[in-house]
Amino acid sequence: MTHKPRLPGILFWLDLLAAAALVALVLVAPWLAPGPVAAGGAARALGLFAHDTAVRRVSLFAAVGLTVSAFVFFRPASDESTNPPV
Questions:
Q1: What pLDDT does residue 5 have?
Q2: Distances from the Cα of 43 to the Cα of 32, 33, 47, 55, angstroms
Q3: pTM of this structure
């Protein structure tokens, strides 16, 4: 019985979850934002995601980068028995 480390799998899914959260925030923020001028805190950040094109673009590119890094660095290990050495 071989022992599989769980940390890479957990980091893989956390990375994908963070990327999905960024994309969801960019898609949902225009409907949830109170307006261009907000009092502060979370409402101000939501307004920034809703109205600032640069923040939206950077967030989408960051989501792509998080997804790529999840698959490059934390992808689940494949089963060695299904891929015999040549």
A1: 80
A2: 9, 7, 6, 15
A3: 0.76
